[in-house]
Write a structure and sequence with these properties.
Helix content is 55%, strand content 14%. A hairpin with a 2-residue loop joins β5 (102-108) and β6 (111-118). α5 runs antiparallel to α6. The protein starts with 7 loop residues before the first helix and ends in a 13-residue tail after the last helix. The chain has 244 residues and is of the alpha+beta class.
Protein backbone atom coordinates (compact mmCIF):
# COMPACT_ATOMS: atom_id res chain seq x y z
CA UNK A 1 0.00 0.00 0.00
CA UNK A 2 1.00 3.66 -0.31
CA UNK A 3 1.42 3.98 3.45
CA UNK A 4 4.10 1.26 3.44
CA UNK A 5 6.37 2.65 0.74
CA UNK A 6 8.95 5.37 1.34
CA UNK A 7 9.50 6.50 -2.24
CA UNK A 8 7.73 9.78 -3.09
CA UNK A 9 7.42 8.89 -6.77
CA UNK A 10 5.86 5.50 -6.03
CA UNK A 11 3.43 7.01 -3.52
CA UNK A 12 2.13 9.71 -5.85
CA UNK A 13 1.98 7.34 -8.84
CA UNK A 14 0.13 4.62 -6.92
CA UNK A 15 -2.42 7.05 -5.49
CA UNK A 16 -2.92 8.85 -8.79
CA UNK A 17 -3.36 5.63 -10.74
CA UNK A 18 -5.80 4.17 -8.20
CA UNK A 19 -8.05 7.24 -8.21
CA UNK A 20 -8.00 8.00 -11.94
CA UNK A 21 -8.63 4.38 -12.95
CA UNK A 22 -11.42 3.97 -10.42
CA UNK A 23 -13.10 7.25 -11.41
CA UNK A 24 -12.38 6.61 -15.11
CA UNK A 25 -11.31 10.19 -15.85
CA UNK A 26 -9.59 11.44 -19.00
CA UNK A 27 -7.70 14.34 -17.44
CA UNK A 28 -6.17 14.66 -13.98
CA UNK A 29 -3.29 16.35 -12.15
CA UNK A 30 -1.59 15.86 -8.78
CA UNK A 31 0.26 18.81 -7.26
CA UNK A 32 2.50 18.79 -4.18
CA UNK A 33 3.98 21.72 -2.29
CA UNK A 34 7.73 22.16 -2.71
CA UNK A 35 9.36 23.98 0.20
CA UNK A 36 12.44 24.98 -1.82
CA UNK A 37 10.45 27.02 -4.36
CA UNK A 38 7.39 27.82 -2.26
CA UNK A 39 5.18 26.60 -5.12
CA UNK A 40 2.92 23.66 -5.84
CA UNK A 41 4.58 21.54 -8.52
CA UNK A 42 3.02 18.98 -10.84
CA UNK A 43 4.07 15.42 -9.88
CA UNK A 44 1.53 13.30 -11.78
CA UNK A 45 -0.64 14.01 -14.83
CA UNK A 46 -3.07 12.35 -17.23
CA UNK A 47 -4.33 13.65 -20.58
CA UNK A 48 -2.34 16.89 -20.47
CA UNK A 49 -0.74 18.73 -23.38
CA UNK A 50 3.08 19.16 -23.39
CA UNK A 51 2.83 22.92 -22.78
CA UNK A 52 0.63 22.29 -19.73
CA UNK A 53 3.35 20.21 -18.07
CA UNK A 54 5.75 23.15 -17.77
CA UNK A 55 4.01 25.22 -15.12
CA UNK A 56 3.78 25.70 -11.37
CA UNK A 57 0.92 26.68 -9.08
CA UNK A 58 1.28 29.67 -6.75
CA UNK A 59 -0.09 29.32 -3.19
CA UNK A 60 -1.64 32.78 -3.62
CA UNK A 61 -4.23 31.67 -6.18
CA UNK A 62 -7.91 31.80 -5.29
CA UNK A 63 -8.31 28.02 -5.39
CA UNK A 64 -5.39 27.37 -3.02
CA UNK A 65 -6.53 30.06 -0.61
CA UNK A 66 -10.03 28.62 -0.50
CA UNK A 67 -8.80 25.03 0.00
CA UNK A 68 -6.58 26.12 2.89
CA UNK A 69 -9.49 27.89 4.56
CA UNK A 70 -12.32 25.44 3.91
CA UNK A 71 -10.46 22.08 4.00
CA UNK A 72 -13.19 20.82 1.65
CA UNK A 73 -13.15 19.67 -2.00
CA UNK A 74 -14.28 22.04 -4.72
CA UNK A 75 -16.83 20.57 -7.14
CA UNK A 76 -17.40 22.44 -10.39
CA UNK A 77 -21.14 21.76 -10.50
CA UNK A 78 -21.59 23.27 -7.03
CA UNK A 79 -19.32 26.31 -7.20
CA UNK A 80 -22.20 28.76 -7.45
CA UNK A 81 -23.84 27.19 -4.38
CA UNK A 82 -20.78 26.74 -2.15
CA UNK A 83 -18.65 29.80 -2.88
CA UNK A 84 -18.97 33.33 -1.57
CA UNK A 85 -19.65 35.84 -4.33
CA UNK A 86 -16.35 37.68 -3.74
CA UNK A 87 -14.23 34.64 -4.73
CA UNK A 88 -16.58 32.89 -7.15
CA UNK A 89 -15.33 34.58 -10.33
CA UNK A 90 -11.63 33.99 -9.59
CA UNK A 91 -12.11 30.31 -8.68
CA UNK A 92 -14.43 29.73 -11.63
CA UNK A 93 -11.78 31.15 -13.98
CA UNK A 94 -9.11 28.86 -12.51
CA UNK A 95 -11.44 25.87 -12.89
CA UNK A 96 -12.04 26.75 -16.53
CA UNK A 97 -8.32 27.24 -17.20
CA UNK A 98 -7.37 23.85 -15.73
CA UNK A 99 -10.49 22.16 -17.16
CA UNK A 100 -11.19 20.67 -13.75
CA UNK A 101 -14.46 19.27 -12.51
CA UNK A 102 -13.30 18.59 -8.96
CA UNK A 103 -10.31 19.59 -6.82
CA UNK A 104 -9.48 17.56 -3.68
CA UNK A 105 -7.08 19.08 -1.10
CA UNK A 106 -4.32 17.02 0.53
CA UNK A 107 -3.86 17.99 4.17
CA UNK A 108 -1.43 16.82 6.81
CA UNK A 109 -1.75 18.18 10.36
CA UNK A 110 -3.84 21.13 9.17
CA UNK A 111 -1.31 22.06 6.49
CA UNK A 112 -2.14 21.92 2.79
CA UNK A 113 0.63 19.83 1.19
CA UNK A 114 -0.98 19.33 -2.22
CA UNK A 115 -4.16 18.82 -4.18
CA UNK A 116 -5.68 16.55 -6.81
CA UNK A 117 -7.42 18.14 -9.80
CA UNK A 118 -9.60 15.97 -12.05
CA UNK A 119 -11.60 16.60 -15.18
CA UNK A 120 -14.89 14.99 -16.07
CA UNK A 121 -15.50 11.27 -16.12
CA UNK A 122 -15.28 9.47 -19.45
CA UNK A 123 -18.90 8.41 -19.01
CA UNK A 124 -20.05 11.99 -18.54
CA UNK A 125 -21.47 11.17 -15.09
CA UNK A 126 -21.24 13.60 -12.20
CA UNK A 127 -19.08 13.17 -9.08
CA UNK A 128 -21.36 11.80 -6.38
CA UNK A 129 -20.87 11.96 -2.62
CA UNK A 130 -19.67 8.34 -2.67
CA UNK A 131 -16.98 9.26 -5.22
CA UNK A 132 -15.77 12.17 -3.10
CA UNK A 133 -15.73 10.02 0.05
CA UNK A 134 -13.64 7.39 -1.76
CA UNK A 135 -11.15 9.97 -3.06
CA UNK A 136 -10.85 11.61 0.38
CA UNK A 137 -10.17 8.22 2.00
CA UNK A 138 -7.40 7.45 -0.49
CA UNK A 139 -5.81 10.90 -0.25
CA UNK A 140 -5.89 10.78 3.57
CA UNK A 141 -3.66 7.69 3.45
CA UNK A 142 -1.54 9.35 0.80
CA UNK A 143 -0.74 12.39 2.93
CA UNK A 144 0.50 10.15 5.74
CA UNK A 145 2.66 8.19 3.31
CA UNK A 146 4.07 11.39 1.77
CA UNK A 147 5.06 12.76 5.18
CA UNK A 148 6.63 9.40 6.09
CA UNK A 149 8.64 9.53 2.87
CA UNK A 150 9.79 13.10 3.57
CA UNK A 151 10.79 12.18 7.13
CA UNK A 152 12.66 9.11 5.89
CA UNK A 153 14.54 11.25 3.36
CA UNK A 154 15.55 13.68 6.10
CA UNK A 155 16.89 10.81 8.20
CA UNK A 156 18.82 9.45 5.21
CA UNK A 157 20.29 12.90 4.52
CA UNK A 158 21.33 13.26 8.18
CA UNK A 159 23.04 9.87 8.07
CA UNK A 160 24.85 10.89 4.89
CA UNK A 161 26.02 14.14 6.49
CA UNK A 162 27.21 12.24 9.56
CA UNK A 163 29.17 9.80 7.38
CA UNK A 164 30.60 12.68 5.37
CA UNK A 165 31.73 14.34 8.60
CA UNK A 166 33.53 11.19 9.77
CA UNK A 167 35.18 10.66 6.38
CA UNK A 168 36.26 14.31 6.29
CA UNK A 169 37.86 14.03 9.73
CA UNK A 170 39.73 10.85 8.75
CA UNK A 171 40.88 12.39 5.49
CA UNK A 172 42.03 15.55 7.29
CA UNK A 173 44.16 13.49 9.66
CA UNK A 174 45.67 11.56 6.74
CA UNK A 175 46.60 14.84 5.01
CA UNK A 176 47.86 16.56 8.16
CA UNK A 177 50.60 14.02 8.88
CA UNK A 178 52.47 14.16 5.53
CA UNK A 179 51.79 17.92 5.34
CA UNK A 180 53.84 18.43 8.50
CA UNK A 181 56.74 16.55 6.91
CA UNK A 182 56.48 18.61 3.72
CA UNK A 183 56.39 21.87 5.68
CA UNK A 184 59.45 20.86 7.73
CA UNK A 185 61.36 20.08 4.53
CA UNK A 186 60.50 23.51 3.08
CA UNK A 187 61.62 25.20 6.31
CA UNK A 188 65.00 23.45 6.12
CA UNK A 189 65.43 24.67 2.56
CA UNK A 190 64.37 28.23 3.40
CA UNK A 191 66.89 28.27 6.25
CA UNK A 192 69.54 27.10 3.76
CA UNK A 193 70.13 23.84 5.57
CA UNK A 194 71.09 20.47 4.15
CA UNK A 195 70.89 17.06 5.71
CA UNK A 196 74.61 17.16 6.67
CA UNK A 197 74.28 20.62 8.23
CA UNK A 198 76.34 22.37 5.54
CA UNK A 199 74.84 25.60 4.17
CA UNK A 200 74.40 26.17 0.45
CA UNK A 201 73.54 29.17 -1.67
CA UNK A 202 69.91 29.47 -2.92
CA UNK A 203 69.00 32.04 -5.56
CA UNK A 204 66.30 34.62 -4.92
CA UNK A 205 63.75 33.08 -7.28
CA UNK A 206 64.00 29.73 -5.55
CA UNK A 207 63.70 31.44 -2.14
CA UNK A 208 60.50 33.15 -3.33
CA UNK A 209 59.15 29.82 -4.50
CA UNK A 210 59.95 28.20 -1.14
CA UNK A 211 58.30 31.07 0.75
CA UNK A 212 55.19 30.65 -1.40
CA UNK A 213 55.20 26.89 -0.80
CA UNK A 214 55.42 27.47 2.95
CA UNK A 215 52.53 29.92 2.91
CA UNK A 216 50.44 27.44 0.91
CA UNK A 217 51.18 24.59 3.32
CA UNK A 218 50.20 26.86 6.22
CA UNK A 219 46.97 27.71 4.40
CA UNK A 220 46.19 24.03 3.78
CA UNK A 221 46.96 23.27 7.42
CA UNK A 222 44.55 26.00 8.52
CA UNK A 223 41.82 24.66 6.23
CA UNK A 224 42.33 21.16 7.63
CA UNK A 225 42.05 22.57 11.15
CA UNK A 226 38.71 24.15 10.23
CA UNK A 227 37.54 20.86 8.72
CA UNK A 228 38.46 19.02 11.92
CA UNK A 229 36.62 21.61 14.01
CA UNK A 230 33.45 20.91 12.02
CA UNK A 231 33.63 17.25 12.97
CA UNK A 232 34.11 17.95 16.68
CA UNK A 233 31.18 18.36 19.02
CA UNK A 234 31.25 21.90 20.34
CA UNK A 235 30.84 22.43 24.10
CA UNK A 236 27.63 24.16 25.15
CA UNK A 237 27.79 27.94 25.37
CA UNK A 238 25.92 29.16 28.45
CA UNK A 239 24.57 32.68 28.60
CA UNK A 240 22.12 34.68 30.67
CA UNK A 241 18.76 35.35 29.06
CA UNK A 242 15.20 36.42 29.88
CA UNK A 243 12.98 33.32 29.73
CA UNK A 244 9.95 35.45 28.85
Amino acid sequence: SAAQTLDMGEISELTFKTITETMKVEKAEMWLFEANTGLFVLVQSLGMKPEELRRDFSPKTAVISYLEESHEPLVGEELDKSLPTDVYDAIKDEFNTSKAEIIIPLFFEEKLIGFLSMGGKASGALYYNEDIAFIKAITAQTTIAIQNAKLHQKVVNMEKLSLLGRLSAELAHEIKNPLFTIKTAFEFLVNNELGDGKPREIDDDFKSFLSLALRETDRINELIGQLLDLGRQSPPKLAWCHIN
